[in-house]
Amino acid sequence: MTSTLPAPATARAPRPVGTVLVTGAASGLGRAIARAVAAAGGRPLLLDRVPVEPGPELGDAPSTAVDLADGRGSEAAIGELLAASGASTPSSPRPERTAAAPSPTSPPRSGSAWSA
Q1: Of all helices (H) and strands (E), which one includes residue 43?
Q2: Which domain holds residue 68?
Q3: Is 111 contained in some domain?
Q4: Cross-strand bridge partners of residue 63
Q5: How many domains does the chain have?
Q6: Considering the domain boundaries, does residue 100 fall inside one?
Q7: DSSP label at 116?
Q8: In this structure, is residue 41 part of a structural domain?
Q9: Model confidence at 115, in pLDDT bands (50, 70, 90)?
């Protein structure tokens, strides 16, 4: 017996790409994601342990070198990238959003700007 699948629902228009924090942006998959974000009209913010070489495909995307294992250094670097891009920071969410509840698998650190 042969069956047919129902017709797919009407396709939704893709959502616009906003500001995207890309780790590992100096090479490989991270670099490919940064290029894809920029090509889709988004604004990639680039992080890596080594300096990210700018390229025409990334436009004027801000970047910084930081070891993500360094918590305080990472928070500072991400804050600087957000400030450079004009994006909102986790401690000052956009007006239409509220702070998310902490994840049950990773409780917030006391005194962290990332705490809910």
Answers
A1: strand 43-48
A2: 19-85
A3: no
A4: 46
A5: 1
A6: no
A7: -
A8: yes
A9: very low
